[in-house]
Each structure stands twice: as C-alpha cells, then as structure tokens.
Specification:
The chain is an alpha/beta fold. About 30% of the residues lie in helices and about 20% in strands. The strands form four sheets. Strands 1-2-3-5-4-6-7-10-11 form a nine-stranded mixed beta sheet, sandwiched between helices. It has a three-stranded antiparallel beta sheet with strand order 12-13-14, with no helix packed on it. A two-stranded antiparallel ribbon has the order 8-9. The protein binds calcium ion (CA).
Length: about 500
C-alpha cells in the first residue's frame, strides 16, 4: 500500500471496506506500513473507549473515547530516539490536530494532555522529546539529543503526526494547534520562532523561554540557602511575607480584592518586616529579609545585559525553603551539570551568577532558550499566538513573559503590528500554569480556535476561581498591557462588572 497525502489522492487508496468507517482513509492497523521520512511506526491499533492504560498509570483512562493509536520512533539524527504517540478519534473527529507539550526536562509522553485534546474531538500527539526520565543526565555527551529536546523532536513529531492523521482520515487536518505550558510553553515559542508554518495557532502557557536564565536564578538562590538554614523562609515566614505584600500592594492596583494584580509596580521592601524587639514572631530576621530581597531581585546577563526575572511580589506562598520551586531548582542544577559544565559532580556551591548565567546562555546558542523576538514569519503566515502567565508563578518568572512580549513589540515596530496575531494574558494571583488565589481556570483552547477559525480575536478571556468545586469569583483576563478594571458597581467577584482597559 502506498500513502499519498492530500484528500483527493488519498481517496484512491481506500478500499470499500475501509470506506465504511472512514470516508477516504486507511484502517488504523494499516498505518503500520506507512513510511515516514525520519522514523518508523512501531504500533498502530484501535483502542476501545475507556480501555487505554498509559504506561505511567495504574488505571485505564476511562473517559477516553475510542481512537486509533499510533506509536512512532523518530530518528532525525543517528543518536536520536524520539518516541511519539499520535491519537486519532475513531468517531466525531473535529477535523483538527492539537499537539500537546511537556514539563521540565520532559522525558515522557504527556498522556493526560493528549487525553484532554482527544476528549474534545482533536487528533493529538505528544513526544518524550528524545529521552526517558525527568532529569538531564542523558544530555552529557549527546549533543544531538540536546537538539532533539530543544526543538527538533517537536518539529519532527509535527511533520509525522500530520502525515499519519492525513493517511488515516483521508484528509489533512483543517487546522493544527500547539497547546503547552511551562516547558510546553517554551516548545510553543520555539515552534513560533523557528517553524512558523507548523501550526495555525499556538498556546504558550508560562513559557520557560529564558530557560538558562531561569536555571541561573533558581540556582543563585539555592546557593545562598542550601547551607544556611537560618536564612531560609519557613512556610509560616512565607505566609507572613505574603500577607505583608498583599497589605502593601493589593489596593495599589486599583481594587482591594486580595490579589496583587500589578506586581511589577508593587514597591514592597521586605525590610519592613525585620524584627525590632525581642519578640521574634510575625517578623523576619535580617538574613531572612535579605533572602526575600534576593528571590525578588532580577539578575542581569553580564554578557548581553538582558534582565533575568526574579519571582514577583504575590508569589510567596509558592516558594520553598530553598527559594524557587523544587522543579526549578532541579532543572537548574541539571542544566549546569549536564549541559553547561558537563560535570555530574558539579555542585550548586560552584555557581557564580556573574560568570555562569552568561556562560549558560552562550553555550545553549538558542537551542533550549526561545528568546528570538522575531515573530514576523509566524505572523506573516497567518499564525495566531496566545501566551498566558500567572503573575504569582513561583516556578517560571512571569517577567519572562512580559519582557519577551515587549521585545517582540519593539522588534516588529509597535503593538499594532502584533496585536492581530499575538496576545499575552497575565493572570493575577495565578500560580504556575494554574492554581493560586486568582482566577485560574479559563478555556484558552476555545479562545484560540475562535481566533484562528473565525477571526474572533480574544479581547478578553473569561476566567474563574473555584473553592471545593464551587466558583467563587469570575474575572476577565485581558490582553497585556490592558488590565481588568472594576466598573464601580456590582460584585467584584463577577466578570461582568469588569472591563479590559489600559492602565
Ligand atoms: Ca488588588
């Protein structure tokens, strides 16, 4: 059997029997014989509804509809070993493709995100990005695997998935989307920057686009704290700090609602919490004050002079005893061990921010970092990009997102040049990809679909916050630099009483 991509050509390939289940495509099992340019199909099988059990779970995903499951191994380089899954709904396919991203150093197919996409009718795919497991020890001595992780696995997956979907259904997906957060947001930006025609629409959540800068920041803080317990902020210290931040900056954003909605303008000095008398409760020691200042403070790349964001006021409840999240710290440590210094014995105490932040970025050479502000090819191709980030993210600084947005605006000649194609939504009080005290649940997939398919640009995205499954606040997210402004009447917990406005 020979497969040809394109609706008309593919029609001639289908047998009458197959036409009963697909208008023009191939039976799922026949995909095993499909030829891929950079890899092989290792499994092609129909999966009954509710029967699929991911290898990383004990139980089957019972909510899944029936689908055609295709497993692929891609080898774009001799050292590549990229695992990919492609799932195509057996019925009620919406005609579209939504690829999903990973977290941290990835190393596994994101079955949960695939399940969400399949459940909404999309054909979907995910990759392990070319290695197994969450750390970066695989990187030592494997430059091609670093390229795979940096950008090649996702791009090659995209090509293969589109081909497989077209072969099975008899038509190319009408629209191709990327949906990722965290490392998946980094992958999103990489696609938009490097392969502008891979996707019609891209969701970049909390993108780790300054990958090496974030690694440097997390390690910088950990270096100060790992052998200095007295300087650490305990959980109760962080609550004291957070209450003080909210007290200082909540109302300053225009609405007293318990949220710091403009943290970049929040002028809060942790020194106001320094213990004055013998009573040591509800205050911070001088060393702890310095720790808080360190966590908030941006760094500067000594070579490029570009700022590297610190964590922002309002994010304190997500901090850990060693500063940034454990994931940020572990990812940072592995970045320096295996990708920068190529020394598994390298320790955080060896770190020198002035020297090593710049060194990490230079060595990366824009492989993992996704800092290129030239989105013009993506925009010219008609692509739409929705980026979002929680202002209270304790894992990837939201300053990454606002800085990148401003750099794109500057590079492309002003906000009007990008507003029709690229919008950033900052979520007050939201943590890393979700969670937190602020409205943190919103349907960015629907917003992107409407933009790409119907030309309805997201002027606001409805978001909500729930406690124990009950919505207790709704609020629009607004395209940056606009903010959700209270209209002066009605409940401050109802989105209808807010308008998106410039500051
Ligand atoms: Ca507020």
């Amino acid at each position: 059997m020979k497969f040809v991509i394109g609706g008309v050509c593919a029609m001639v390939l289908a047998t009458a029997a197959r036409l009963e289940t697909r208008d023009a495509g191939a039976a799922c099992a026949d995909l095993a014989r499909l030829k891929l340019s950079n890899g092989t199909i290792t499994a092609a099988e129909n999966v009954d509804a509710g029967a699929f059990k991911p290898p990383d779970r004990e139980n089957a995903l019972q909510s899944l509809p029936s689908f055609c499951r295709v497993a692929v191994t891609l080898t774009p380089s001799p050292d590549s070993d990229i695992k990919v899954e492609v799932w195509i709904p057996a019925a009620n396919w919406n005609g579209k493709f939504q690829a999903v991203g990973n977290g941290a150093f990835s190393g596994s197919v994101n079955y949960a995100a695939m399940a969400a996409a399949l459940g909404r009718g999309y054909a979907t795919s995910s990759t392990d990005t070319g290695h197994a497991g969450g750390g970066a020890s695989w990187a030592a001595g494997h430059p091609e695997k670093i390229v795979d992780f940096g950008w090649r696995a996702v791009h090659e997956m995209t090509i293969a998935a589109k081909k497989i979907i077209a072969a099975q259904t008899g038509r190319a997906p009408a629209f191709a989307y990327w949906n990722g957060c965290s490392a998946g947001g980094r992958q999103a930006m990489k696609e938009a920057q490097r392969f502008p025609d891979d996707y019609n629409g891209i969701i970049a959540g909390a993108p780790g686009l300054d990958w090496t800068g974030r690694a440097a920041q997390a390690v910088r803080v950990a270096k100060t704290l790992e052998h200095n317990a007295a300087a650490r902020l305990s959980s109760s210290d962080r609550q004291v700090l957070h209450r003080a931040v909210v007290g200082a900056c909540d109302a300053a954003d225009g609405l007293k609602d318990g949220l710091v909605s403009d943290p970049e303008s929040c002028r809060f000095d942790p020194g106001v919490l320094e213990c004055k008398g013998p009573d040591q409760s509800g205050c911070l020691t001088p060393a702890q004050v310095e720790t808080a200042r360190l966590i908030y403070s941006p760094g500067v790349n000594a070579s490029t002079r570009r700022r590297i964001g610190g964590l922002l006021p309002g994010s304190e409840l997500g901090w850990t005893d060693l500063g940034w999240t454990a994931s940020a710290r572990a990812t940072g440590l592995d970045q320096f061990r295996f990708l920068v210094f190529k020394d598994p014995a390298w320790e955080i105490q060896n770190f020198n921010f002035e020297r090593d932040a710049a060194r990490a970025e230079e060595i990366d050479r824009d492989t993992l970092n996704a800092l290129d502000p030239n989105l013009q090819p993506f925009i010219s191709h008609g692509g739409k990009l929705i980026q979002f980030h929680g202002w209270a993210d304790p894992q990837i600084s939201p300053a990454n997102s606002t800085q990148y947005y401003e750099r794109v605006v500057e590079t492309l000649g002003g906000p009007r040049k990008i507003h029709g194609s690229y919008r950033l939504f900052m979520a007050p009080g939201m943590g890393h990809c979700g969670g937190g005290d602020g409205p943190n649940t919103f349907d960015v997939v629907a917003a992107l679909d409407a933009w790409v398919e119907r030309g309805t640009a997201p002027d606001r995205i409805a978001a909500s916050h729930s406690t124990s499954g009950v919505v207790d606040r709704s609020r629009p997210l607004c395209p940056y630099p606009q903010v959700a402004a209270y209209q002066g009447t009605g409940s401050i917990d109802e989105a209808a009483n807010f308008a998106c406005r410039s500051r």
